[in-house]
Design a protein that fits this description.
Length: about 120
Amino acid sequence: MDIQGKLAQKLTQQTGQGKNGAWVKQEFILETQEQYPRKVCISLWGDKVKDLENFSIDDVLKVFVNIESREFNGRWYTDVRAWKIERVGNSNDSQDVTDLPPFNDDFLPHNEPTIADGLPF
């Protein structure tokens, strides 16, 4: 699943020690660009935290996420975890003008005779 929006805020990195070793987590706020914008808190874990350093506040991003809910003591907790982030507008799918082949003017008429009154008919 993916969600697109503007990077509104980067929250402070959190670190800790668990039974499986050290962990690092960073959350960020993505604001959707709809008629009624929504803010979504998305988390990054482990090595993925470094990916957020490539983006600045107000960058428009497409974030690929997994959504999971867990129950603990009768309450449900939902986690929106990013596994890929990309900037919108810099995709390789769109063809840039510099990617086009050089213009071939072999099909244009060359050295056409001029007509005295300027009209070709």
